[in-house]
Amino acid sequence: MTASTNPADEPLEALSPGGSVRHDGPARDRFCRGREEPGQRTGLGMNQESTSIETVLGELNPPQREAACHDLSPLLIVAGAGTGKTTTLAHRVAWLIHQGTDASRILLLTFTRRASAEMLRRVDAILRQLEGTRQGTAAGSTRVWGGTFHSIATRLLRRFGRLIELPTEFSILDRSDCEDLMASLRNELGLGETGRRFPKKGTCAAIYSRVVNTQTSLKDVLESAFPWCAEDLEGLGELFAAYVDRKEIQHCLDFDDLLVFWDALLDDPSAGAAIRKLFDCVLVDEYQDTNRLQGRLLKGLCPDGRGLTAVGDDAQSIYSFRAATIRNILDFPEEHPGTTVVPLEQNYRSTQPILDATNTVIAQASQRHTKTLWSERTSGERPVLVDCIDEDEQSEFVVETVLARREEGVALKDQAVLFRASHHSLALEVELANRNVPFHKYGGLRFLETAHIKDLLAFLKLVDNPRDGVAATRLLLMLPGVGPVRAGRMVEALLEKGGVISAWDDVKPPAASEEIWPRLMQLLKQLAGDNRDEQNVSAELHQVRRFYTPLLESRYDHAAARIRDLEQLEQLATRYNDRSRFLAEITLDPPASTQDFAAEPILDDDFLVLSTIHSAKGLEWDSVFVIHVADGNIPSDMATGDADEIEEERRLLYVAMTRAKNRLFVCYPQRYYFRGRRRSDAHGFSQLSRFLTDDVIACFDRQAARNADDRDEADEDLAADVTAEEIRRRIKDLW
Ligand code: ATP
Ligand code: MG
């Protein structure tokens, strides 16, 4: 992410020149001519420019090209993995700009900031090709409004929120902030004391989010998705009402609010009209993973469908736990009359042997709309199903094979290890660290969700919005001798005095904090002060870190590793000169986790990619290793509740396997040790994932991770760790 490629990082003003921008230009006139042959449509002859746009479009196949050069009537590209959906969308953006659409009037919605940056990089490359510029940035690309639904919502709300009486200065609560707020309200309302178990904070937050995102009543959501909480209907209603009020008082919005208020803006006649005037074209990638509310937002932005393009693959829908629904894709043509649907069937990513395997996996899905994919890359090695004795053997196999591929000329960055749950990679991370193989991990426990990072940010969040009770409470509870009751009183005092830090001037701190309190006040006032120099977010974080480090050391283990994380955050902040923007962006789309082992390799040029399957969406690598493909892991035993969940797990495996271009290894450990192999041989046996049916296995070569001789040697190693004498000694230790 750099300021030059990602307009989400640009100051809002630079991106949205508002009413002064030409609205209906030559682009519109051209589009109005309707559907003609691409050559005719662009009005291009054999001049220099036409050759170049033709060359660029020549990279696309006929349906891709049809989609890229489609007029402004609503367009839906529904196609399978690797068929060039994202590529086509990038070409469409470039084509629109080339045709005269003002880049700053194009809104490009992607699933992650990373995807947005990547897409805009591609657009930029195409435009530069057209302009004949090799260096620098093409004229248009940086002005496109690119980002996730949530980041675009934040920008629009800061700009237009006042029209619906929303404070334009607001804090954004991430998922765990919401849970913390739910927890404290739950206590305040005495809901945990009813003699029976009230749902935990995480469940409360999940129920709330589902209600908001599906726009369904609490009662219905409880009945359909959380039946074990049905008895708590009343208590939950009370809790959610208090939650909404508290966020209002504290000028905080959660992720769902961002979408809800954006929707409200669009409903408001003046705000809605102002926003609609901003954009000529709205394009969305990964549409299968949007929810009902996001579908409504598109309708609000483009009521008649004009300028709207959506792209997706129903076979890759993997976010239903966030209330995403493939109905958005299926209902799109009905929702937007006059839609042209363009299917794509040629896969450019994978070899045919890999596609044979992935097609067979998805063919067994009960609901299926996307057609079977084919590739011109008919030769290539068959995918390999690797039987591993246990997780250690799996890790060794992966590391050995990754290194062997590197010897063959495939960079580490072109290889990825994918897994269902973040903790599935822990053993591998240790093995990689031992062997000095640099890696970077995406997904899973986010960097921002670690306690020490949240602590550090609480200082900045509080000075940014002194009404932010979640940040204030977090900060106060770090201080020795301050408990929840005292913290609660102090947060109230802040709110009563209109949200200024000086509200704490008269506070008498508990004895244990007498020394630290004046220093804290001094720091907060300094950070909040108007007369601070031009905002330097990194320097502010540095100041906070100096204050916070002794607290960190007294509160947590592994202080050194945590301090490294704080330093990284400081480093990251150097790209920002606006504190609110920094806080919003990293809350909405946090950087990938910087695990202890991963800290160093981030600096390295080449590194192996480790990623949860969810975070691997839309990406591709030369070689892909899918690990832990055992029942219980995929499908996850957390998700085997009903048939729909199982289907989603199948699509997850499909997403994982379709990331591979040339080599695909699916690994299956047969044994899982209860306490780690080196500590005890007690183990259970696993079963190969149910999705790898005989038909699927027939598409694979099957091999053991190690040959039998190696295994015998390894077993000797293992035996040497636990000798009979050691066991006798342990028995003796028992008395
Ligand atoms: P996913 O479903 O995983 O999001 P996708 O449909 O968006 O995939 P892309 O990522 O756009 O597919 O493209 C997959 C690969 O195919 C990329 O490497 C891309 O460069 C290549 N590709 C796409 N279209 C063409 C084409 N017409 N000719 C050659 N290569 C192409
Ligand atoms: Mg894509």
Please explain how this structure is put together:
The chain contains 30 helices and 16 strands. With 735 residues, the protein is an alpha/beta fold. Strands 9, 10, 11, 12, 13, 14, 15 and 16 form an eight-stranded mixed β-sheet that branches. Strands 3-2-6-7-1-8 form a six-stranded parallel β-sheet, sandwiched between helices. The longest helix is centred in the N-terminal third of the chain and has 19 residues, at 113-131.
What topology does this entry show?
Layout: H1 12-15, H2 26-31, H3 38-41, H4 48-58, H5 62-68, E1 75-79, H6 85-98, E2 106-109, H7 113-131, E3 145-147, H8 149-160, E4 171-173, H9 175-188, H10 201-214, H11 218-225, H12 233-249, E5 252-254, H13 255-267, H14 269-278, E6 281-284, H15 292-301, E7 308-312, H16 327-335, E8 340-344, H17 352-363, E9 384-390, H18 391-407, E10 415-419, H19 426-434, E11 439-442, H20 451-464, H21 469-478, H22 484-496, H23 516-528, H24 537-555, H25 559-573, H26 579-588, E12 608-612, E13 621-626, H27 643-657, E14 660-673, E15 683-685, H28 694-697, E16 701-704, H29 708-721, H30 724-733
Parallel strand pairs: 1-7, 1-8, 2-3, 2-6, 4-5, 6-7, 9-14, 9-16, 10-12, 10-13, 11-12, 13-14
Antiparallel strand pairs: 14-15
Helix pairs in contact: 5-6, 6-7, 8-13, 9-10, 9-12, 10-11, 13-14, 13-15, 17-27, 18-19, 20-21, 20-23, 20-24, 21-22, 23-24, 24-25
The chain binds adenosine-5'-triphosphate and magnesium ion.
